[in-house]
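Q: Could you fold this chain for me?
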Amino acid sequence: MKMFNYIKLFILVALSSLVHSEFIYSCTEDKTIALTFDDGPHRYTKKLVDYLVDQGDIKVTFFHVGRFHYPFAIDVQEFQDAMKKAHDNGFQIASHTYEHKISEDPIEFKKALHTMDDFINKVTGDRPRYFRAPKGHCKEKCLKQLDEWDYRVIQWDTDTNDWDYETSGSIEQRIEDSINYLKKEFAKEKKSYLILMHDSLNHTVNTIAPWIIEKSGMKEKGYRFVTVAECLGDKTSMYRSRKSYSDSDDNNTSKKISQDENKIDITKDNRSNDNIKNNSTTKDIFTPNDTSTTKDTSTPKVTTEFQYDNEDNYNSLNSGVLTKLKSISFLFYFIVSLTIYLLFSF
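A: Sure. Below is the predicted structure, expressed as structure tokens.
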């Protein structure tokens, strides 16, 4: 009998090791919408932040990277100013890795996380606790490490696919497809929505995000636009007061980021502007703060303010091509619960 009890204990310990940090796909608070923006801060982030601040009652979450789209956020003061303004106005700043990749080497992974946290802390004064993996891809080993380092790993339950020009064929069709998808999802009036977008994309900033906020009708249905932390009932813990992992084993691995070094003016940077054509004289596809009293939920037509000559290829290569993963956490909990019941029912 004693040996049988030891076997029970061994099985329980083994199963408990399966239950660790899990992906968070959805909000837990009723009537909340968490708008999330990946891959910034970049050239369109300032415009988005300015627009959101003007709305007054809107809070969103940014999953930022340090070095991804050129020019890099770590080098451009304007991008960092947008990050700080977002933070200072109550928007959540979270990590999306330093270079939009996760190393298989845990030491390199930790170094990259540390470097990104340092960057965000240098700009905002806070270290993020929330994290989203590039493309949403984080294997079991990665997830376990993030759990050990006290990160909350965020996925999504509503994907605008704003990056996917290839399937749609054009930016115009991409906007129409994204908004039509959102109309169907919003018609379901679910408990909450955790929505994925990219502030590195002009049409998202100019059209899709404003449509959600002003023309979707969700505010009129009683939904609130909040940060991811708030939609999870965790508003006071979106940041950590100090580093939650030891620096003793990587004192020489974290890149020192100085707030005054390596800053460039994007208006004078030839490499970043060679492929941009200015169409600023054309009418905006959607004008924020529409004063009309009648809600128009039709899909707006697109006229981009700035467009890369090869923007389709640029964004398909560089934006987060995000594939939703199937959560297996509930299966783990079910197995553990069933095993405990069977073992101790004899």
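A (continued): The longest strand covers residues 32-38.
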